[in-house]
Design a protein that fits this description.
Strand content: 35-45%
Largest sheet: 5 strands, antiparallel
Number of domains: 2
Helix content: 10-25%
Radius of gyration: 41 Å
Distance between the termini: 25 Å
Oligomer: single chain
Order of helices and strands: HEEHEHEEEEHHEEEEEE
Number of helices: 5
Shape: elongated
Strand order of the largest sheet: 10-9-11-12-13
């Protein structure tokens, strides 16, 4: 990049009228006019045999990585003290976001305000457009660094659902017996004793209807705590050899213990909750203009994360300070129709700020802050 701008400056010094070599006596002092270059905005149409080019402008692509820490309270948090003796279980969910990383790259695209039409004035002269493009002097009018990206997961939407697993063996339904119904069966005649002896009193038949009903949250929490206690006991017995279990190797025992530990953690989360971390990457394209030095990137808050510029939260701002290195360079004349136009990019110092906190610092070339100067067509003529 440094070599490109040294080349541009060298070209400018060699072709400026003040530095041109003196003509020998008798030679025509008029410069050779190989092409006519006019602003595309000043002509009604593009003539046949002409070509167009555009001066570049700089686009800053801001990449922002956000990490969100989310705590989700367990469904049995209210019963953690009652059944497990845990006194500090949180019963409310909460989340917090923070910006973990910011990076910026500069890209070049065609400036729609700097479009030019070139009309060759000699039929046997061709111009080295490839060299002009490689040295950053001009672009195709459709030349663009890439598609604008402003897609990011999670901002203003769902970050994902935290699942809890209750793998108890008792199920979620319980049996409930209805009221008893008593009936007495008559004694058949052929069962009467022939001697007239009295028979035992007939036994009532009891009918019971069984129904199913959902268990209460308290009952489910109690069963989960009981199952958790059983898991801990089994893991201890397995680890100490009190359970008569045969494993082909120590690795098999490790796998069994780890599986029990995993199930135990899932059950413990029902009472103490879960903490998850999610990452989203956001892209914002900023096109600097010459009338301001502060540009809004997005809005951010710990609760909502990244929001668009019209959302809620603190403003994340991109700040530019131009160094004005080329104040002494003369700009191109408005009607210099026989010279190519190109830009000398200025240097700007960048900061990205969250209020008074500096999140990023860098130094970049910015084309649109530079001056448009003239360059003889002979430089690129073949």
């Amino acid at each position: 990049m440094k070599q490109i701008y040294l080349t541009i400056l060298a070209l400018a010094l060699t072709v400026q009228p003040g530095f041109a070599q003196k003509k020998k006596k008798g030679e025509d002092n008029e410069p050779r006019r190989l092409a006519k270059v006019v602003s595309l905005h000043s002509v009604p149409q593009v003539d046949s045999g002409c070509f167009m080019y555009a001066l570049p402008r700089t686009v800053f692509r801001v990449k922002m990585v956000v990490v969100r820490e989310q705590f989700t309270a367990g469904p049995y948090a209210a019963y953690a003290n009652k059944y497990l003796g845990i006194t500090d279980a949180k019963v409310s969910s909460l989340s917090q976001s923070k910006i973990s990383n910011i990076s910026v790259v500069s890209l070049s695209e065609a400036d729609p305000k700097q479009l030019y039409m070139v009309q060759p004035l000699e039929s046997n002269v061709y111009f080295d457009f490839l060299r002009m493009g490689q040295e950053g002097l001009m672009l195709s009018p459709a030349g663009y660094a890439g598609a604008s990206m402003d897609a990011h997961m999670g901002a203003g939407g769902e970050w994902g659902h935290v699942a809890f697993y209750n793998m108890g063996i008792d199920g979620t339904m319980k049996e409930q017996k209805a009221a008893k119904k008593v009936t007495v069966q008559p004694v058949p005649a052929d069962t009467i004793d022939i001697d007239g002896a009295e028979m035992d009193e007939p036994q009532p038949v009891v009918e019971q209807k069984v129904t199913l009903s959902a268990k209460t949250q308290d009952e489910r929490a109690q069963e989960a705590a009981r199952f958790l206690s059983q898991l801990r006991k089994r893991r201890f017995e397995l680890a100490t050899g009190e359970i008569d279990a045969v494993f082909n190797s120590n690795e098999g025992l490790k796998v069994a213990l780890e599986e029990i530990r995993s199930i135990e953690q899932q059950y413990m989360a029902l009472f103490v909750g879960k903490t998850t971390h999610q990452t989203s990457t956001c892209y914002f394209d900023i096109i600097p203009s010459g009338v301001m030095n502060m540009y809004p990137v997005c809005k951010f808050s710990e609760d909502g994360g990244i929001q668009h510029a019209d959302g809620s939260g603190r403003n994340i701002m991109l700040e530019l300070h131009v160094e004005d290195k080329y104040t002494g360079v003369k700009s191109a004349a408005a009607r210099d129709d026989f010279m190519f136009k190109y830009r000398i990019p200025e240097v700007a110092n960048m900061r990205i700020l969250d209020g008074k906190d500096e999140l990023y610092r860098g130094r970049f070339y910015v084309y649109q802050f530079g001056k448009v100067v003239s360059l003889s067509a002979e430089v690129f003529a073949k």
